Amino acid sequence: MDPLLEVTDLSKRFGGLRAIQNVGFPVPAGAIFAVIGPNGAGKTTLFNLIAGSLRPDAGSIHFAGERIDGLAPDAVCRRGIGRTFQIVRPFPALTVEENVVIGALLHAHNVETARSAAGEVLRRLDLYEKRHQPASSLTLPDRKRLEVARALATRPKLLLLDETMAGLRPTETDRMVATLRELNRSGLTILLIEHVMRAVMALASHILVLHHGATIAQGSPREVVRDPAVLSSYLGAEAL
Amino acid sequence: MTRKLLDGVPRRGVVALATVLAVLLAAPLFANDYLLTVLILILYFAYAGQAWNVMFGFAGQLSLGHALFVGLGAYVSAALYVHFGVAPWIGLGAAIAIAAACGASIGFLAFRFGVAGVYFAILTIACAEFARIGFDHWSWLGGSAGFFLPVANYARNDLWNLRGSPAMFYYVMLGLTVVALIACRVLSQSRVGYYWRAIREDEQAARTLGIDTFRYKMYAATISAGMTSVAGVFLAFYYNNLFPEQVFHILRSIELIVAPIIGGAGTLIGPIVGAVLLTGLAESLREALDLLGLDVPGAKQVFYGVCLLVVVTLVPGGVWPPLARALRLTTRHGS
Prior knowledge:
Strand content of chain B: under 5%
Largest sheet of chain A: 6 strands, mixed
Order of helices and strands of chain A: EEEHEEHEHHHEHEHEEHH
Number of domains of chain B: 1
Helix content of chain B: over 70%
CATH architecture of chain B: Orthogonal Bundle
Oligomer: heterodimer
Number of domains of chain A: 2
Largest sheet of chain B: 2 strands, antiparallel
CATH architecture of the largest domain in chain A: 3-Layer(aba) Sandwich
Shape of chain B: globular
CATH class of chain B: Mainly Alpha
CATH topology of chain B: ABC transporter involved in vitamin B12 uptake, BtuC
């Protein structure tokens, strides 16, 4: 079966800096695929390339059989890719519900249907009780959940999560892991950038390790954490 | 329809709205011409503020050149009336079309080529200034010497040609303000309204939710420009004289935006509350100074300045949101 997302020989430079060099990987439909690596490895750049916020200098990105590199972010979203941001960006002055309604409007004929779709997503993410609060009043974990909810409301086939666990306490991380696992079980393919190895190991079926913009390892979690290059550049020997 | 419009508005809010509307409808019965003139001015600023609010309050695009659309509306309808005998209600259609096209062109230039924020504001000022200088030299429309409509005969109200008494103009302006309020309510509850708020809050995030932000910003620029031009049509037929130096001047643009900012940009009632506060209090101030026998030139401008200063430091979101909370008039959805 063709992968849902296929990244091939992707490269991106910022002036003299090679942010992404010849990175390629397939994300099979239904997988939870993690991208890890030290700060500055190019993970968020990779996300921005996939989500259409940046244009690659070389290489290609195919999604569900269609080439999507170079498309605008809204066009990428309409094709079925949702994303969250590393630094959360819910619409602060709007209520929790309005935030999600805006996502749901993509596939809803009117605001009423969008509101009921948003209600379902909010229940799933445990935010329904807070739906009338302004997004700015939420705690960080709730804001992160809201971003996931908002992206989910666009009914993506693939969800890009940029450090959703960062800044969360272990109990909150476990809660998010459980939520993501459940979403994945219902058919959603997830590509995540994560530093919290506890979450990565709990979730990912496949891991890609970036360092200085290049792939240094990829494979199953078990293989990757034993890879000497990964140990020396990212995890450190104590990870074992 | 009415139920949908009032969805989420508490009963107190509906009663308050109905009471205010009833008082305004009855106002010409007890108000003298002077008070009526003040009320007309309040409604004019409430209407124009509402129109500007679509662009900035809803969609987050700061225009500091909205006098351009007031002026276009005024000149188009007045020229059609004076030169071709076209009634203002027909001229209104042409005025809206021309102003909307102009708003769309400015929007296209800005949004297609990434002119945003302060630079967008400067672009709008520049366009209004171009118009001011252009109309100043356009002799067919009177140039800098001004363009005049035949002065109204107060003996008879001619609604079709907008010639008549202050009471007639008052009801016209009240009607326009009510229609603008309803239109903005419908817009803000629709897909367009949601998308505008998303763009206002965070355009990048809005795009990742599949919103074609260019298209929705274009809607805002076009609708806001078209709506604003209607205020210009009223202005022309109410004052009967137009000078480019006055109608297109940047001070006119600033005057338009003070009421919605003080009242609460992005809210529906804010522009109206702002207009009542500003124009009402400024006129009262003038009256008070007159009574005291003081002649203070520029008192109104100083008053505007002080109001702005107080609002931006104490209630940056405008007077209406905290006022609505205090009176328990907020909607369920917080708007």
